Model the fold of this input.
Amino acid sequence: FFFKQKTAYEMFRSLSKQTVKPHEVIIVNQGETPFENLEAFGIPIRQIMSPEKGLSRARNVALNEFTGDWIVFIDDDEEANAEWIEQIEKLAQAYPGAGIIGGSYYPPIRHDDSASFVSRLYPHGDTLLTAENLFAPTEIPDFFLDVWGGNFAVRKDVVEAIGGFDVAMGRGSKAFNGGEDTDYLIRAVTKGFAALTSCRVVIYNTHGARPHSPDLEKELIEMATLLRWKSEQDPSTHSPAITSRLVPYGKKKAAVAALCRGVLFNDQLWRKEAHDKMLETLNREWKLQNGCLVRK
Done:
């Protein structure tokens, strides 16, 4: 999913330096300007110009086009560690039960957290993710067992069983600006596939810094509400046991906050209001079809 020509060329360069070369690199270009001189990277690159916008739509184009046993997603503002593909290949052999593999996100070396936000993820060792532990908290503060979409390998049989990403979700969607990777992971694990998160699968989030958003917490609450709502609509695609770990607010604290008019736990009252508003929107405007959102 490529917006930025300059950063994407740096990403291509990182793929050309892999210890195990990619079978094929598929570029889903949703811009108006094709990438040029791609043959200079010395790896097989196939560019697909796609008029439809949105991250999930771009990934679905790639899902329909790839020909190997695995497809591995990387974003245009990232670079891959030189052993990225090699480690995914080794882990796929070592953990044959894993149908999805993901791993670490390292921020830029000189990133200033006070100036901007950048995603980062530091899994410890190798951990298989199932319905029993997906999104479970760890000893690392604010870190949950998860796999993120910019470092996301999917086996062919998972794609055949699950289908594509929900096009109403993800950056560039006109509906919900995120969560498509988490949604896909839930759908796969609900179907009985395991995922694997590993410290060995390393992506550098080189150009991923973006301004701090005052709406970030609200967006996270809305996404947790959306995924829990999906499990209520169709438990066969979104396991309630999994989505119950995505807690948009504390019910007891919100109740106390309502009684004392926000003197205590006012943040939980605000979170509950955001949750309730999102729930109203979902019930009024959306329904679920094969695990994906469809407007009524």
